[in-house]
Amino acid sequence: MKDKILKRFQEVFGEADNAKVYFAPGRVNLIGEHTDYNGGHVFPCALTIGTYGAARKRDDNKLRFYSMNFDKLGVIESSLEELKACKEAGWTNYPKGVLWAFEEKGMRIPCGMDLMLYGNIPNGSGLSSSASVEVLTGFILRDFYGFDVSNQDLALIGQYAENHFNKVNCGIMDQFAIAMGKEGHAIFLDTADLSYTYAPIALKGAKIVIACSNKKRGLGDSKYNERRSECEMALEELRKKTEIKSLGELDEDTFEKFQSAIQDDVRRKRAKHAVYENRRTIRAVEALQKNDIAEFGKLMNASHVSLRDDYEVTGTELDTLVEEAWKTEGVIGSRMTGAGFGGCTVSIVKDEAIDSFIEKIGAAYLAKIGYKADFYVVEIGGGPKVL
């Protein structure tokens, strides 16, 4: 892959002298959805698919961006003086946002760069291609200029760029899972204080299968920000009755006791999902620690039901993939993953059932939706690195 990237870099930018090649993973969240901005727990892992980047410093302030995934767009030029988000900049708003965020945090970027990217994460799939680009860009800047930032800092800077430059009010999960990924492990992260532990994922006789709905969505265009605001309003209402800083502090019984403080039925459903999903995530990790994969699978299924009925972020495509999975022999658990409104599902499937799972669900999906889904049997990878 490294040679392929450098060869294309040379074709696009004239030469590849002094260019280095980097990689940052994508991520999948096993359970704990829409809890990260509600002060709850999440349980994501980094993947072995992700974003490759070749980059080199320039001796001026010019920025030249090129993506092998958007070949027809050619080289998109900008400069360090033009770090403003605009629709015309397209995908380059993500690396530009990170450059801007470094400057905002007092780390001056001394010169421009040529940056070429290639991602093998399906675009718009909900496997965090944008966060992967953000962490990759931050990792390159640290390597180029020796900034004193940890991988956890890179995650926070990526989130800051997404929130304030690209105006998507995302939580910390995506960037954190990518920056802090560990091979063979998922990250049990408490988003309230960023305390975390690595939990080994030993799925004896089973694998993680991701089904991409191929329904494209952009987080900023979706109702993501609306869901966040509904939860924030519900929290304010609950705080009139109980002293909490986030929905993640509540257990189910306390929520049931005080839920009448939430004046609107829709907001009550949103808050219920955030509270119950957080407790599900804690129980799922406990089940995994006891090697109770069957219980983990049941909690995954319950997570999808809550996302469908209380949080209303699934839609026909994701529901079709999950409901067909539930009917299929050898499936331990299945749910939507990511922000929803399109994107992907994640399933744990017994090894001997994987081929029939892909065939059966693929056929049912095509028949109902009218276009095909793509399937990926994935492995858990590590964080960003120099190749």
Word description of this protein:
The chain is globular, with a radius of gyration of 21 Å. By secondary structure, it is an alpha+beta fold. The protein contains 11 helices and 13 strands. The strands form 3 sheets. A 6-stranded mixed β-sheet has the order 5-4-6-3-1-13. It is 40% helix and 21% strand. The longest helix is centred in the last third of the chain and has 25 residues, at 265-289.
Q: What's the helix count? A: 11
Helix proportion range? 25-40%
Rg value = 21 Å
Count of distinct strands: 13
Strand order of the largest sheet: 5-4-6-3-1-13
Compressed to H and E, one letter per element, the order equals HEEEEEHEHHHEEEHHHHHEEHEE
Structural class: alpha+beta
Shape: globular
Rounded to the nearest angstrom, the distance between the terminal CA atoms is 9 Å
Portion in strands:
15-25%
In round numbers, the mean pLDDT is: 94
Q: Extract low-pLDDT stretches.
A: none
Question: How would a crystallographer describe the biggest sheet?
Answer: 6 strands, mixed
